[in-house]
């Protein structure tokens, strides 16, 4: 009886240690998830744009430590319709580093000056860093419509188009954050299965784990694709109408209109660059001075 009692006591102590370990792991996972979401930078649009009018108010959120006085001065100039002063202020702010809201406001200021190609350029830059910026995307389409330019991606299989849209929906940092989160969840579930002897937690972990692994693989893959696109795919916006030439320097019938977004393929001699339209129907050499990189 004494030996049996000691066995029960040992089992209770062992189960208590396991429960404490599981509780510690769960706490660690929750803290990891909270820290991961806190690390993710999500910039919401400054305000809604349901109509065809560019918003007149500017974004007020500042994610870095630039002097607030300079930002407020540029915002005040914008609200007072002193757009040249606002443009100078926003461009000065951008010299200290990239800020999506400043890029968005700069695009709005150029729109008010009726410089639509420059407005498109800054909306494209804002979307490069924050793909889900709805106001920037909405205003970008307005500018394109006014200039009569359109972005027609090449026809692809439905699945490829869907996957590309999914990849572009989040930035590289956001996909990376999700990958970290699902990796932490997968690690927690693996440890839970190995340490617990209770059927229900082990069964729940077994059911959830394949989905967590799949989600981690998807997020990690898209993070890698977005990173590659961000650092290797170079785009530019035509600031004026530009004629496309072939290899022999002969002008083609295609003329890129100001405001068209193109992909830069390679640099040439005598100030020439090879560009390609989004639908890949037009490719050739153009004057590099007519384009500004995104």
Give structural attributes:
single chain, 294 residues, alpha+beta, five-stranded antiparallel beta sheet, two-stranded antiparallel sheet, 9 helices, 59% helix, globular, disordered N terminus
Provide structural commentary.
Strand 4 (261-267) and strand 5 (272-277) form a beta hairpin. The chain has a 5-stranded antiparallel sheet with strand order 6-5-4-1-7. The N and C termini lie far apart (80 Å). It has 9 helices and 7 strands. Helix 2 (68-79) packs antiparallel against helix 3, helix 4 runs antiparallel to helix 5 (116-129) and helix 4 (100-112) packs parallel to helix 6. The protein is globular, with a radius of gyration of 27 Å. It is α+β, with helices and mostly antiparallel strands. Mean pLDDT is 77; it is low at 1-10, 33-53 and 60-66. The chain is 59% helix and 12% strand. The chain has helices at residues 2-39, 68-79, 83-94, 100-112, 116-129, 134-147, 158-169, 172-195, 199-232, and strands spanning 235-238, 242-245, 251-256, 261-267, 272-277, 283-287, 291-293.
């Amino acid at each position: 009886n004494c030996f049996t009692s000691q066995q029960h006591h040992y089992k209770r102590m062992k189960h208590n240690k396991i429960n404490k370990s599981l509780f510690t792991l769960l706490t660690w996972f929750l803290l990891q998830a909270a820290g991961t979401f806190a690390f993710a930078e999500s910039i919401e649009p400054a305000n809604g744009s349901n109509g065809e009018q560019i918003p007149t108010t500017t974004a007020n959120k500042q994610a870095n430590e630039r002097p607030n006085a300079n930002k407020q001065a540029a915002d005040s100039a914008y609200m007072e319709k002193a757009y040249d002063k606002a443009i100078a202020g926003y461009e000065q702010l951008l010299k200290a580093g990239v800020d999506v809201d400043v890029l968005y406001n700069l695009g709005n200021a150029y729109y008010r000056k009726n410089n639509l190609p420059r407005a498109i350029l800054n909306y494209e830059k804002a979307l490069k860093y924050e793909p889900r910026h709805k106001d920037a995307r909405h205003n970008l389409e307005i500018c394109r419509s006014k200039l009569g330019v359109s972005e027609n991606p090449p026809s692809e299989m439905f699945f490829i188009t869907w996957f590309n849209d999914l990849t572009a929906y989040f930035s590289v940092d956001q996909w990376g954050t999700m990958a970290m989160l699902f990796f932490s969840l997968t690690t927690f579930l693996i440890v839970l299965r190995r340490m617990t002897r209770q059927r229900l937690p082990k069964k729940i972990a077994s059911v959830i784990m394949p989905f967590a692994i799949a989600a981690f693989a998807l997020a990690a893959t898209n993070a890698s694709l977005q990173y590659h696109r961000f650092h290797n795919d170079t785009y530019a916006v035509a600031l004026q109408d530009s004629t496309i030439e072939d290899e022999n320097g002969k002008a083609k019938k295609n003329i890129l209109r100001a405001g068209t977004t193109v992909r830069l393929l390679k640099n040439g001699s005598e100030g020439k660059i090879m560009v390609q339209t989004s639908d890949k129907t037009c490719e050739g050499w153009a004057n590099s001075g007519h384009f500004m990189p995104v």
